[in-house]
Amino acid sequence: MAATPSLDSSIHLPVTSVETKHEILRHLWDFDVCPSHFYDIYHDYDAYFSYYTEQCSDALHDGGRHVSVRTHNDIVQIAQHLKNSVNRNSVRQILGYELPLPKPANEDELLDGSIDLVARLLLMVEFGCLQYGFTGRRQVGWVEGSLGECMTKYFGAPQILEQETVRFEKVFNARNLGQIAGIKIRWTNNLADHLRLVDDVSIDANFSSNLFPVGLVDETLRTLALLFPGTDKTTKKWFKKLSTSKKLDTKAVKCGRLRAEDRYIENFEFWHDRLIVLKQLFDEAEPDTFPRWWYDRRRRVQWYTFWIAALVLVLTIFFGIVQSIEGGLQVYKAYNPS
Fold first, then answer.
1. Are residues 118 and 180 in the same domain?
2. 39 Cβ partners below 8 Å, 6+ apart?
3. Rounded distance between C-alpha atoms, residue 227 and residue 284, angstroms
4. How large is the angle between the packed helices 72-83 and 107-123, nearest 10 degrees?
5. Residues 132, 109: contact at Cβ < 8 Å?
6. Are residues 150 and 16 in the same domain?
7. Which among 19, 23, 15, 76 has a CA at the least distance from the CA of 46?
8. Which pLDDT score, from 0 to 100, does residue 298 have?
9. Which end of the chain is more exposed for a tag (fewer CB within 10 A), N or C?
10. Residue 311 lies in domain
């Protein structure tokens, strides 16, 4: 593949040129949008390039002695091999031939580190052991075979949890997970952590779907439509505020909404078990603070009963205090008539 001048810059520096961003996405994801339309109501890839810059910075830790890639061209060259289903060992051999002589003592580390970096940039899935990066993410092991085969094996694992028909009501969304069930959402850009307690995913990107199992990308977007329904104004307002402060991908609330017949667990294959665990935790959560009592309207009768009782209690206390004050004033007047 011929080198592209705009990709000759170092990965050590943040990507600021729209032309360079466009070329990177064109090679990684077969992106086909005119650079002049790169930022509009349908396209905004700042969240991805923030991730891209972070990953490259982590990979170049310690003077870049853990990876062989230095430019964006190096990344897209490796990405082409991975997209063409070349197995990992063959990619290592190809990269090994390109290393300058004499070969460095840590040749294996350089090659594996470069392959894992490009795999992360392609799929936004955590590959490799980043001892110098954030280690709280779930890492996917890939030591042999092609990248697509690794993804099929990981995401295509058989379902373990069996459950009778489960339907996700409209109240089951990301905002209510926190306000009603008290579940703290940790935003992640690692697809392997999607819906994993206590993590959730906020990145909606044009994934290289040919490397994922068929249907995974579509189902992932449907889980975003479930948790961030585009027609729920309250959720959209809540997410917009968060996306500004946490630099989240605003397209997460633009995945539409699920129809009533699509909200059953049998419509989810890859995220089946994680959704069941999340739904059980949500259903079993009981409000233990006044704010949660206010937001939790899953049981309408119980909600009205609680707040009527609370109102009666407040009024009883209020009138009790008023009567006490009146009684005190009457006693005071009795002893001090003037």
1. no
2. 18
3. 18
4. 80
5. no
6. yes
7. 15
8. 63
9. C
10. 299-335
